[in-house]
Amino acid sequence: MTHEMTEEKARAAAWFRELRDQIVAAFERLEADHGEGPFSDQEPGRFEVTETKRSAEDGSDAGGGLMSVMRGGRVFEKVGVNISEVYGTLGERAQTAMAARKGLPGMKEDPRFWASGISLVAHMRNPHVPAVHMNTRMFWTPHGWWFGGGSDLNPCIEYAEDTAHFHGVQKQHLDPHGGDLYPRLKAWADEYFYIPHRGRARGVGGIFMDDRNSGSWEADFALTQDIGRAFLPAFVPLVEKRRVQPFDDADKDAQLIHRGLYAEYNLVYDRGTKFGLETGHDANAVLMSLPPLAKWV
Predict the structure, then answer these.
(1) Considering 123, 133, 143, 281, which one is annotated as catalytic?
(2) In the sheet that 144-154 helps form, which strands lie side by side, from edge to edge?
(3) How confident is the model at residue 81 (pLDDT cuts 50, 70, 90)?
């Protein structure tokens, strides 16, 4: 049995909120500073923040979070930065899946859980600016704890130097935790973000981990924090460089078609989407990742 980890849970939830605040502020600065190029004559976007609540079957409090969404900005067509802290008991399907995938005995006898994390998806106005996803989380049950998450880049028009920058920054943040870590998490992302029914990846990859429990909570929390710290320096320079580029109808068409891949992946394969819906979290928050417009041909 794992102890309650009250202090560790509080530290993790506080970090996810701190990271959320940093990202929201950085994205609103990008909107405010967009002074030339496509859409620069429009009003800068701002985040709308909504508190989310989750109730157990008996109506008792089961946690919630903050949903921060910006729509129709000059740089961001739709971006969501959500944080959550939820708890309660896992339903029968979730218990079975958890016991099978994690190898955790005793889930049926004590199906309590606690989870907290940050989830971000950005769909951009300019097709030259890549879409991006980032998620990190901590999960606790009486039978074990773990961290998970990562970030990945999803351009519809790929620039090799942008891909190299995104991966390079992540490697810099992961290398202090072990030289073998970045290659393993990169390979994991390549596998996880693959779309079998399309026979291709949904983007140019990044890093991803799940079930991270090295035996040292402090070490794994520090790694999770550095995955979060890598996000803004990996992504913001790409936005600043590409948001001023002109584009045509063919570029926009390519973006909408590529977004179809993103929607298919998140609805069919993404574990976070499935877990959020199965555990009764706010559906709008769970499906925040879906693009505002997409196209299938």
Answers:
(1) 133
(2) 48-55, 61-71, 76-89, 112-124, 131-141, 144-154, 205-212
(3) very high
